[in-house]
C-alpha cells in the first residue's frame, strides 16, 4: 500500500515538476525563439545541445551534472562564488538538472510553434506600431498558445518520469530529493514489489492521462 | 506641384524635390546574390504612386525599404519632412516608429483577434494626439461594419483585405504602402475593392505607394508611376506621361493606352451622352450618372485612335481632337506607333505603316486624332 | 527509459543467440562492486579452462527481478548473501551450489587528503556538509555503514547530512566528485594493489559491522552446463582468491 514515504515522494515529485516546468518555460521560450528566428551558424550547435538529453542515457547526463555542479566543476565554482553553495543533493539542484533534462521537450514544441507563425505577423505588427517585446506578448504568445500547452504538458510529464538524473544528483534525501521514480526503484531493489506496483500503476495511469489529454487535444485542433 | 515636376530618371536623380517638405525622397541600394536594388527617387507627397514592373523587378523590395522592413545598407528616406533613414549618419527609424500603414499582398489579419480587435491593434498604439482618422471613418470607408465581431477565418478574401486596409488606415498613417493588395483576389473581389481604394484616394490626403504588375489597376488608381526593371527605376513620372512614352514597354503592349484626367462638363440627355472636358477640349462618352464637375479618369487605347489630316465631319466618330505628332516608333514592320500631343496631354495612336507613309506622318505635323472608344476608369 | 528498454531487448536477443551458438559459454550476472576483479578473473578463467564467461554487471535487486522473470543467467555473483539465499529458497538455483566468494570491507573515504583521519574521528567532529552512504534499503554496504554510525552513536546526529547513493558505485561517485566530502564506500573501490589510490581513508574495524558476505550461486539455467560449474570452482581457486584479495576484499 501507499506509505507516508510514498506520499512524500509524490508530493515532492509534483512540486519538482511544477517548479521545473515554470523554469523550463522561462528558459525554453527565449531559446526556442532564438532557434526559430536565427540565421546564425550557431543554430545547429545550440539545437544539438538542446536535443542531447533525447539521446543521452540519463545516467550520463546525471554524471556530468554531478561533476559540473560539484565543488570542482565549473558550475559548482560559480555557484559557490555567488554564495549559493553547491547544488547537488538540493531541491534547487534537482530543478537545474531537470530543466536541462527536459529542455528539448519544451523547446522543440515551442520552436515548432514559433516557426509556424512565420515572419509575416511580426512584420504586420511592426507596421501597426508594435515594438519587438510588445509584438511578442500581443501576437506571438497568443498565436503560439497550442505550442505552449504542448510544451507545458510534455515538460511536466517528462520531469515526473525523470529518474536517472535525479538519482545521480539527488542523493535520495526524503522530502528533498526522493521523488516517485526513485522511490519505485528503491521498492524494486528492496524487493518490495507490492509497494512498487502501487506507485508504478499510479505513474502509468498518470502518464496515460497526460498523453491522452495531449493527443485528444491535437485531434481537436485538427478538427 | 506633382504634375509639374520634370520627372524621369535624370530629373529625379538631381533631387528636384529634395527640399520640398511635402515630398518623398528615397534612395536605396541593397542586394543579395542575383538581385540588386538601386534607386534614387523623388516622389510627390500626395496621390497614388504606382510601383510598376514585372515580378522580380524589385517593387516589393522597394516598398519594404520604404516601410523599414528591409534595411538598405546604403539608404536615405525622408517622407514629408521627416527623416526616416539616413545611413550616412547611421539613422534608421524602425518600422514600428514610422507613422505608416502597410497592406500586404495577402491580408495577414491576426487570426487570434476579431475584426474589431484587429482594427484596434494599431489604433491603440498610436498616441491620441496623432489620431487623425477616426476608426468609424475607416470602417465606413471600407464598408466593414457588419464584419466587426467576426474572426478573420470566417471572412472572404475580399473582406479580409478590406479589413486589412481599414486596419492600416486606423493608425492615421502619413504614408500608406500597399503591396499588390488585390493580387490574391479574383476579378469579382477586385471589383469589390477597387471602389474603396478610389474613395480612399478621393477622401484622404495620404500619399499611397501602390505596388502592382497589373496595368489596369495602375491605370485606374495611379497618379504617378515608377517603372521598375531589374531593381532600377526606368521611368518616374505622372501616369499620362509614362504610359505614353515610346521608349518604354507600356506603349508597345497590344493593349497600350493612355489615361486622361478630365471632369464632367455636361450631360446630353437626348442622346444619353456625357461630355467630359480636359485641357479645354471635349471628350464624349456614353452617358454617366455623375454630377457636373466630378473628376474622372478615362482610358484611351492606342489601337482605338486613328489619324486624319483634316477634321472630317462625314464620319461616325464622335471624338476628333486636334493633335500634333511628337514622335514615331516603327519597330514593328507593319505598324507605326504615334505619340501625339493634344493640348499638353499625351495620346497614343497605332496605325499601319502604310497609312503613316501615305499621310506623311512625321514629328511636328498637325493632325486630327479620331478616338473610337473612351472607357471610364473612375 | 525507453532507450534503455530497447537496449535491454537488443542485449537479450544477442545473449540468446550467443547461448545457442556456443555451448562453452557461461552467462554471469555480477554485482557492480565486483566489476574490476571479475573482469580479471574472467580473463584468467578463459585462458585456463577455454570457457568464456559473458559478464553482465548491475544491481543485485535488479538481477533478482530479471532472474525471477526468466533471464538466462547461469551464475550469479551477488553483492549480498540474502538474495542468493532467497533464490535458493525459491528453487531458482542449483541446490547446494551457494558459497561466499568475497567479503566486502567498509572504508570511510574522502577524495581529499587529510579529511579522514585513521581513527575516523572526523565523524564525531562533524565538520562536513554531506556524508555519502549507499542506500541501506537496497545495498549491503549501506546496511553496514548505518550499523557503524549506530554503534558509534552518531546515527541521529548525522542523519540530516546523509546523502544516499542507489548503490555503492554511485556513493563512490558522490565522494569522488567532491559533492560529498566523505562517505562509506567499499575498500575495493579505493584500493589498487593493496594501497589507497588517493585521498584519505579510515578502514572501519570489522567489529563495527556485520561482515558483508557476497555470495555466488549457480542458477537453474546453469544446471547442466559444465562451464557454469567450472566457473564456480574457479572462483574458489587460489588464482581467483589472490585477485579478490588484491582488490581489498576479505575471505
TrEMBL record, chain A:
Transmembrane stretches, start-end: 12-36, 48-69, 81-103, 196-215
Superkingdom, taxonomy of origin: Bacteria
Keywords: Cell inner membrane, Cell membrane, Membrane, Molybdenum, Transmembrane, Transmembrane helix, Transport
Residue stretches making up the ABC transmembrane type-1 domain: 10-216
Keyword Manganese (UniProt): no
Chief place of localization: membrane
Annotated compartments: Cell inner membrane; Cell membrane
Membrane topology: Multi-pass membrane protein
InterPro entries according to UniProt: MetI-like, MetI-like_sf, ModB_ABC
Pfam families: BPD_transp_1 (PF00528)
Family: Belongs to the binding-protein-dependent transport system permease family. CysTW subfamily.
Its biological purpose: Part of the binding-protein-dependent transport system for molybdenum; probably responsible for the translocation of the substrate across the membrane.
Alphabetical list of PANTHER family matching this protein: MOLYBDENUM TRANSPORT SYSTEM PERMEASE, MOLYBDENUM TRANSPORT SYSTEM PERMEASE PROTEIN MODB
The protein's name in its UniProt record: Molybdenum transport system permease
Species, as recorded: Aromatoleum anaerobium
TrEMBL record, chain C:
Signal peptide: 1-23
Pfam families: SBP_bac_11
Keyword Metal-binding: yes
Keyword Signal: yes
Protein keywords: Metal-binding, Signal
Top-level taxon: Bacteria
Gene3D superfamilies: Periplasmic binding protein-like II (3.40.190.10)
InterPro entries: AvModA-like_subst-bd, ModA, ModA/WtpA
UniProt family annotation: Belongs to the bacterial solute-binding protein ModA family.
Name this polypeptide is given: Molybdate ABC transporter substrate-binding protein
Organism per entry: Aromatoleum anaerobium
Amino acid at each position: 500500500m501507499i506509505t507516508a514515504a510514498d506520499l512524500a515522494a509524490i508530493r515532492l515529485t509534483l512540486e519538482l515538476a511544477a517548479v521545473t516546468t515554470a523554469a523550463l518555460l522561462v528558459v525554453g521560450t527565449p531559446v526556442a525563439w532564438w532557434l526559430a528566428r536565427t540565421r546564425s551558424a550557431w543554430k545547429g550547435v545550440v539545437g544539438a545541445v538542446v536535443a542531447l538529453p533525447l539521446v543521452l542515457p540519463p545516467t550520463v547526463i546525471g554524471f556530468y551534472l554531478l561533476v559540473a555542479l560539484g565543488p570542482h566543476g565549473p558550475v559548482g565554482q560559480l555557484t559557490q562564488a555567488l554564495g549559493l553553495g553547491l547544488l547537488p543533493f538540493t531541491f534547487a539542484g534537482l530543478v537545474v538538472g531537470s530543466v536541462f533534462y527536459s529542455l528539448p521537450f519544451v523547446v522543440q514544441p515551442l520552436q515548432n510553434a514559433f516557426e509556424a507563425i512565420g515572419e509575416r505577423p511580426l512584420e504586420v505588427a511592426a507596421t501597426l506600431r508594435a515594438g519587438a517585446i510588445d509584438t511578442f506578448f500581443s501576437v506571438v504568445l497568443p498565436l503560439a498558445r497550442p505550442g505552449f500547452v504542448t510544451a507545458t504538458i510534455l515538460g511536466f510529464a517528462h520531469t515526473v518520469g525523470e529518474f536517472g538524473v535525479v538519482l545521480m544528483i539527488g542523493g535520495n534525501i526524503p522530502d528533498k530529493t526522493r521523488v516517485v521514480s526513485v522511490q519505485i526503484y528503491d521498492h524494486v531493489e528492496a524487493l518490495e514489489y507490492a509497494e512498487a506496483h502501487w506507485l508504478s500503476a499510479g505513474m502509468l495511469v498518470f502518464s496515460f492521462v497526460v498523453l491522452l489529454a495531449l493527443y485528444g487535444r491535437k485531434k481537436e485542433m485538427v478538427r | 506641384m506633382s504634375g509639374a515636376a520634370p520627372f524621369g530618371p535624370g530629373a529625379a536623380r538631381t533631387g528636384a524635390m529634395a527640399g520640398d517638405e511635402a515630398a518623398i525622397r528615397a534612395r536605396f541600394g541593397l542586394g543579395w546574390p542575383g538581385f540588386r536594388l538601386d534607386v534614387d527617387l523623388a516622389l510627390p507627397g500626395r496621390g497614388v504612386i504606382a510601383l510598376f514592373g514585372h515580378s522580380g523587378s524589385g517593387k516589393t523590395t522597394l516598398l519594404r525599404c520604404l516601410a523599414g522592413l528591409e534595411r538598405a545598407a546604403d539608404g536615405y528616406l525622408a517622407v514629408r519632412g521627416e527623416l526616416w533613414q539616413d545611413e550616412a549618419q547611421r539613422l534608421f527609424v524602425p518600422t514600428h516608429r514610422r507613422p505608416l500603414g502597410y497592406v500586404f499582398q495577402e491580408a495577414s489579419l491576426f487570426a487570434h483577434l476579431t475584426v474589431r480587435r484587429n482594427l484596434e491593434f494599431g489604433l491603440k498604439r498610436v498616441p491620441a494626439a496623432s489620431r487623425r482618422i477616426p476608426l468609424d471613418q475607416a470602417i465606413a470607408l471600407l464598408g466593414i461594419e457588419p464584419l466587426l465581431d467576426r474572426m478573420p477565418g470566417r471572412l472572404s478574401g475580399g473582406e479580409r483585405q478590406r479589413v486589412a486596409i481599414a486596419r492600416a488606415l486606423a493608425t492615421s498613417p502619413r504614408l500608406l504602402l500597399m503591396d499588390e493588395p488585390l493580387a490574391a483576389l479574383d476579378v469579382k473581389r477586385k471589383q469589390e475593392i477597387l471602389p474603396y481604394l478610389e474613395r480612399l484616394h478621393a477622401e484622404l490626403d495620404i500619399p499611397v505607394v501602390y505596388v502592382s504588375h497589373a496595368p489596369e489597376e495602375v491605370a485606374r488608381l495611379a497618379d504617378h508611376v515608377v517603372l521598375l526593371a531589374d531593381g532600377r527605376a526606368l521611368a518616374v513620372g505622372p501616369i499620362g506621361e509614362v504610359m505614353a512614352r515610346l521608349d518604354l514597354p507600356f506603349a508597345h503592349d497590344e493593349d497600350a493606352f493612355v489615361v486622361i484626367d478630365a471632369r464632367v462638363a455636361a450631360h446630353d440627355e437626348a442622346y444619353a451622352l456625357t461630355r467630359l472636358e480636359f485641357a479645354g477640349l471635349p471628350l464624349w462618352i456614353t452617358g454617366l450618372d455623375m454630377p457636373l464637375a466630378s473628376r474622372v479618369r478615362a482610358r484611351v487605347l492606342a489601337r482605338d485612335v486613328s489619324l486624319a489630316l483634316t477634321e472630317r465631319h462625314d464620319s461616325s466618330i464622335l471624338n476628333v481632337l486636334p493633335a500634333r505628332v511628337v514622335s514615331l516608333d516603327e519597330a514593328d514592320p507593319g505598324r507605326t506607333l504615334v505619340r501625339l500631343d493634344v493640348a499638353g496631354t499625351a495620346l497614343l495612336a497605332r496605325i499601319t505603316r502604310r497609312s503613316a507613309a501615305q499621310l506623311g506622318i512625321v514629328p511636328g505635323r498637325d493632325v486630327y486624332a479620331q478616338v473610337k472608344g473612351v472607357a471610364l476608369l473612375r | 527509459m525507453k532507450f534503455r528498454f530497447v537496449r535491454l531487448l537488443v542485449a537479450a536477443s544477442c545473449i540468446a543467440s550467443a547461448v545457442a551458438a556456443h555451448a562453452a559459454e557461461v552467462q554471469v550476472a555480477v554485482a557492480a562492486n565486483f566489476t574490476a576483479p571479475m573482469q580479471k578473473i574472467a580473463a584468467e578463467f578463459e585462458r585456463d579452462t577455454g570457457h568464456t564467461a559473458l559478464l553482465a554487471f548491475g544491481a543485485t535487486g535488479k538481477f533478482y527481478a530479471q532472474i525471477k522473470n526468466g533471464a538466462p543467467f547461469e551464475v550469479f555473483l551477488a553483492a549480498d548473501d540474502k538474495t542468493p539465499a532467497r533464490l535458493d529458497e525459491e528453487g531458482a538455483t542449483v541446490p547446494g551450489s551457494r558459497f561466499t566468494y568475497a567479503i566486502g570491507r567498509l572504508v570511510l573515504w574522502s577524495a581529499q587528503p587529510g579529511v579522514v583521519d585513521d581513527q575516523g574521528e572526523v565523524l564525531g567532529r562533524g565538520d562536513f556538509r554531506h556524508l555519502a552512504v549507499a542506500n541501506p534499503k537496497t545495498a549491503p554496504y549501506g546496511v553496514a555503514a548505518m550499523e557503524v554510525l549506530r554503534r558509534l552513536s552518531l546515527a541521529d546526529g548525522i542523519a540530516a547530512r546523509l546523502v544516499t547513493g542507489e548503490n555503492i558505485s554511485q556513493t563512490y561517485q558522490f565522494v569522488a566528485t567532491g559533492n560529498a566530502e566523505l562517505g562509506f564506500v567499499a575498500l575495493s573501490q579505493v584500493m589498487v594493489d593493496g594501497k589507497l589510490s588517493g585521498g584519505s581513508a579510515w578502514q572501519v574495524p570489522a567489529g563495527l559491522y556485520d561482515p558483508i558476505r557476497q555470495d555466488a550461486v549457480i542458477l537453474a539455467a546453469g544446471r547442466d552446463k559444465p562451464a557454469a560449474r567450472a566457473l564456480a570452482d574457479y572462483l574458489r581457486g587460489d588464482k581467483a582468491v589472490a585477485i579478490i584479495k588484491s582488490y581489498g576484499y576479505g575471505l
